[in-house]
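dude i think i finally got it to work??
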Amino acid sequence: MPDTHLPREELRATLEARRDLGPDYEDALVDSFLEKLDREITARVRAEVATHQGHKPPKPDNSHIPVALGSLGIAIPLTAIASSNAGVVGLFMTMGSVVLINLAYALGRRRS
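look at this
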């Protein structure tokens, strides 16, 4: 919650000065008070904007999704072909290749 004591104290001081000085200085006192109030409002707005500028949530990087889906899409027919032609060895080689491709992509993203 913003500190409201400064404008209140300034207003009280301005009213007290108006009582002491009389109506001849009213315009100058009002202008002075409004300038101080304007500076206070400007400072509060700048402080509020500064606190909100650093809190933008980062945009998520979903560039890994096409690689993962593509490797799974290619892995299905390769698995069928490899396991029917080479048995369990072909199955493990196909799945190992898919894992290595995704691992290499993930490590490459981490470095950059």
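The mean pLDDT is 85.
im so relieved honestly
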